[in-house]
Amino acid sequence: VQILTPEVYIHYIQKMGMGGHGEPVETPGASPFGDPPAALLLVGGDSAVIGPAAAGLAAGISADGPATSAGRRRRLRPAEVAWGAAGVAAVLVLLQVLSETGAVPTHDIPRMTSILASLGHQAGTGTFWGVVGDTLEGWGIGLALAIAVGIPLGMVIGVNRLVWRALRPTIEFLRPVPSVALIPLAILLYGNGLKSTALMTAFGAIWPLLIQTTYGARELDAVARDTARSFRIRWLRRVFAVRLPSALPFIATGLRVASATALIVAITSELIISSPGLGNAILFAESGGQFTAMYALILAAGLLGLALNTFFTQLERYFLRWHPSQRTEV
Amino acid sequence: VGALRRKAGLILEVSVTLAIIGVIWLVTANSHSPYIPSLGSILVTFRQTWLFARFGSDVVPSLIRLAVGFSLSVVGGIVIGFVLAKVRVLRLMARPIMAFLMAMPPPALLPVFIVFFGIGSLMKIAVIVSVCIWPVLYNAMDGLIGMEPTTADTANAFRIRGLARLRYVVLPAMAPRLFAGMRTSLSIAILILIVAEMVASDNGIGYFVLESEQSYAVTAMWAGILLLGILGYTLNGLLGLAERRVLRWQLVPLEADL
User: Fold this and answer.
1) Measuring CA to CA, which residue among A268, A265, A271, A300 is closest to residue A287?
2) Is the per-residue pLDDT at A48 higher than 60?
3) CA nearest A188 in B: which residue?
4) DSSP E strand boundaries for chain B
């Protein structure tokens, strides 16, 4: 038997999605594309779903792929998986045929089979994994820094309205600054090493996390908040028992976007300041004319991105599982 | 009371922001660090460099590449997204490939484009399109698939076809997701353009910034970074304005209280 502590009660409320959090909102209205035929006015507008994903959209940092709707996506059916596999096979075969027939000179794009063979060969060497490890090191340190600063700061800004108002212009200005613009500065200050890479990566990754955490902390379920108040839960306990759990789905989305951004910045800085890693290895293979190896490494970079993205999408889905948008209709 | 609170909030925003700028100004005013010049000297260099000595030679090429690449991505994304939304088999076949290409860190593709297109504007535009088309495509497709069945049925019943259907049914159904995709695309477009200009170029803002750093023209480098910041902020703001205008029937609940 579960004792009804305030936390359990609040958790229960959030699970039930009471208090309107995450409910779809119907916004009827006219179409922006001129006056629609009268018939369509009857249909009304689209419906907007308010939720972590939508908050991400509002923050302008999400919607960058299937992962945005990851939460909503159902499990794929076998037939769909089969079609997907067929699509991948078709592209691979097409590329191979183009090379074999000479439509695309193998000098420009090597045969797909050679690229895959090269990837397989490289995957058996320690050098390759060392390079992947280097990239992951820059990515990981940067992401960790961003988490350490972004999440607490986001909680503070989100909880306190005045702090949000005061810092909003500064954040809004800094957020769209392309992190790669700061690479030259990082070189000046920290030289061509891991320190520069980690710093750039952290700067790129912190914004999605900060903004998402802020939205998450603001988007507290009214019923949960009032419950916490009427139980007179103390401030610190309220932050950890009420605010943080309700912000977690938002943070998970931020984490996914931050991870993708961190990988981009890490590889960029490897390209430009030649710190070791996949980006540098790709550039090295290109300048040495080893195009097969270059394509294999690019393939590896894509697979690495896919693996990280999948991991964080799963994490997001896990944190979102209680959310109303996750419920399947019975 | 609402108006008063709004006014107080505005005052808070402005005063704290000015205070932050003021502190930076004071802290850097007597800076002896060769790498962190005073804010005043950065602003002077900013004016000398960008108004308008190197405007035509560096800013204009960057803006043109950005505009062409971004427009092509949006148009291409809408067209392909439309086709994929209509043809289910094609969509199912394309999904894993799209997932792979979207997860690919864009800078990793740069060397390929250098091999194929050299280091001119064509290379940058090709890179931008290859990277920026995905968010637009995916969101256009998803927006269309998620269209209210009633809307489609009504349009069918009234036999709304061709251009009228595109304008009154298809685009409005796509629009909210489309803008979300465009916003993501724009940020990536700016990012990858700067990277491309840093890695391989002989003009452009990204080139200017890295070049300044390599020749130890630190103040010029800061002026370039400042310009990139302003550029990112302005372009995002413009897209946001367009979005608010086009989606004013839609965005109200999202904008509330922010």
Assistant:
1) A271
2) no
3) B35
4) none
Task: Tell me the two tokens of residue B72.
Answer: 């092509």
Residue pair B174/B138 in contact by the 8 Å Cβ criterion: no
- B81: closest CA of chain A, how far (Å): 13
Question: Tell me: the pLDDT tens digits for B161-200?
Answer: 888 888 888 888 888 888 888 988 998 899 899 999 988 8
Q: State the Cα–Cα distance between residues B144 and B162, nearest whole angstrom.
A: 16
Whether residue A170 and residue B210 make contact (CB cut-off 8 A), yes or no, is no
Peptide bond into A319 cis (omega under 30): no
B33 touches chain A (CB under 8 A): no
Nearest to A31 among B104, B168, B210 (CB): B168
How far is the C-alpha of B167 from the C-alpha of B162, rounded, in Å?
A: 9
| DSSP SS3 for A182 | helix
Q: Which residue of A has its CA nearest to B104?
A: A302
In one letter, which amino acid is B233?
Y
Q: Are B151 and B92 in contact (CB under 8 A)?
A: no
Alpha carbons A64 and B105: distance in angstroms, whole number: 12
Per DSSP, the three-state class of A18 is helix
Mutate to test the interface with B, among A108, A131, A268 (most CBs of B within 10 A): A268
d(CA B209, CA B190) in angstroms, rounded, equals: 14
Q: CA A155 to CA A152: how far, in whole Å?
A: 5
**Which of the four pLDDT bands, split at 50, 70 and 90, describes residue B147?**
confident
Can you tell me which residue has the tokens 């709707």? A69
Q: Is B5 exposed, middle or buried (0-12, 13-18, 19+ CB in 10 A)?
A: exposed
> Could you give the residue ranges of the DSSP H alpha helices within A175-290?
183-190, 194-218, 222-230, 235-238, 244-273, 278-287
Residue A49 bridge partners (DSSP):
A24
Distances (CA, A) of A39 to A35, A181, B157, B168: 11, 50, 10, 11
Closest CA to A58 of A165, A177, A249, A212: A212
Contact B107 A168 (CB under 8 A): no
Instruction: Write the pLDDT tens digit of every residue in A84-126.
Output: 899 999 999 998 888 888 887 877 788 888 899 999 998 888 8
Contact A176 B233 (CB under 8 A): yes
B245 vs A19, more confident: B245
CB distance B197 to A269 below 8 Å: no
Total beta-carbon pairs less than 8 A apart between chain A and chain B? 263
| Predicted ipTM of the assembly | 0.82
Q: What is the number of alpha carbons within 13 Å of residue B231 lying toward its C-beta? A: 27
Query: How big is chain A by its Cα radius of gyration, in Å?
Result: 24
A56-70, A118-132, B66-80: range with highest mean pLDDT = B66-80
Answer yes or no: pTM beyond 0.90: no
Give the distance, in angstroms, between the CA of residue A179 and the centroid of all CA atoms in the same chain.
16
**Where are the strands (E) in chain A, listed by range?**
24-26, 47-49
Q: Identify the bridge partners of residue A24 per DSSP, sorted by sequence position.
A: A49
Is the Cβ of B249 closer than 8 Å to some Cβ of chain A?
Answer: yes
